[in-house]
Amino acid sequence: MKKIAVITSGGDAPGMNACIRAVVITAWQEGIEVIGFRHGFRGIVEDLSQPLHPDDMRLVSQRGGTFLKSARYPEFREKATAQKAAEQLDKHDISALVVIGGDGSFRGASHLAQHWQGQIIGIPGTIDNDLAGTDITIGFATAVDTAMEAIDKVRETAEAMARVFIIEVMGRHAGFIGLHSAIASAAEAMILPEMDPQPKLPELADNILQAREAFPDSSYVVVLSENLWPGGVHALADSLSKATGVTCHPCPLGHIQRGGRPNAQDRILSMQLGQAAVHAILDGASGVMIGLENERVVEVPLALTYDRDKPLDPRLVNLQLGLQGVNFASKSDRETA
């Protein structure tokens, strides 16, 4: 009987537990034993293993985070560390490893493949949605929902006081959360790493001033991707306050975007990809990510998921730019025409 292992690695994402459930149940239906290693690749090296049985999978799909725990483990880049992991997998008679994570996790999986002969399958689990080869990653939809709900609540108090808020969302070097949450929350402006050219401070300040003149009783929300503006959201809010004479309030959403129960979309996606990963193992696949393109499950070489950039949907970018691009200066002209 085959035996497979599963880990969750890197930043946690809502839906990881549902994915583990799908892997375990599908494997057991095929007569395959499953063990999990806690804390990602570090758990393999340190042998933090536990058996996984369908009886353990009740009520896990609803939970956020990952019950197997996760970790970032830069030491895994070292040859000796990967070799130690390979020894531990062989000691447990593991024939295949399922890695649920993002680009860093897949780089680790590719590194392990140089020192271990077993099958390795990746499943995209990251709220950033920045992996090429799949339309969507586990956790992204829930993170956008969480950001949208938070921005909606900020909007209500901002509208009551006619305030300007700069809201920072997660995404590292990718603007997917920023773009989708800006559209969903009807933001007046967005600043994303993919925007070229990047909006300058005078342009941002001028737009705020035009909006205040045209709609003095209205709120104004800017969605900013993290790690983009020098000094972060607080520095941008301070600079805009000085440039406009209007108090601009910084609001970093932070790790709230990682937490919470996965929404229906993420639960369904997680189970789809988890089941497909086991089927891929049975078919002899290795060194691939199981993704979703055009509503179809696909297999993509791991290296292609992190060696190329994943672009934003230009239609959605144009949608947001068009809806936020109100020509405030023309309002008085229309009124006098």
Describe the structure.
This protein has about 325 residues and is α/β, with parallel strands linked by helices. The protein folds into two domains: about 5-140 and about 260-305, Rossmann fold (3-Layer(aba) Sandwich), CATH 3.40.50.450; about 140-260 and about 315-335, Rossmann fold, CATH 3.40.50.460. It is built from twelve helices and eleven strands. Strands 3-2-1-4-5-10-11 form a seven-stranded mixed beta sheet, with helices on both faces. It has a four-stranded parallel beta sheet with strand order 7-8-6-9, with helices on both faces. Helix 5 packs across helix 6, helix 6 crosses helix 11 and helix 7 packs across helix 8 (about 230-245).
Question: Could you outline the blueprint of secondary structure elements for this entry?
Answer:
Blueprint: E1 3-8, H1 16-29, E2 33-37, H2 40-45, E3 49-52, H3 79-91, E4 96-101, H4 103-113, E5 119-124, H5 140-161, E6 164-169, H6 176-184, E7 189-191, H7 201-214, E8 220-225, H8 232-244, E9 248-252, H9 264-282, E10 288-293, E11 296-301, H10 302-306, H11 314-324, H12 331-336
Give the radius of gyration. Answer: 23 Å
Helical stretch tally: 12
- Summed up, the domain count is 2
Report the CATH architecture of the largest domain.
3-Layer(aba) Sandwich
- Are there runs of 5+ residues with pLDDT below 50, and where? 327-337
Spatial sequence of strands, sheet with the most strands = 3-2-1-4-5-10-11
Q: What's the SSE pattern? A: EHEHEHEHEHEHEHEHEHEEHHH
CATH topology tier name of the largest domain: Rossmann fold
Overall average pLDDT: 93
As an assembly, this protein is single chain
Our measurement of the CA-to-CA distance between the termini, rounded to an integer number of angstroms, reads 80 Å
| Fraction of helical residues | 40-55%
What class, by secondary structure content? alpha/beta
CATH top level class name of the largest domain: Alpha Beta
Q: Tell the overall outline.
A: elongated
Approximate strand percentage? 15-25%
Total count of strands? 11
What's the story with the biggest beta sheet?
Answer: 7 strands, mixed
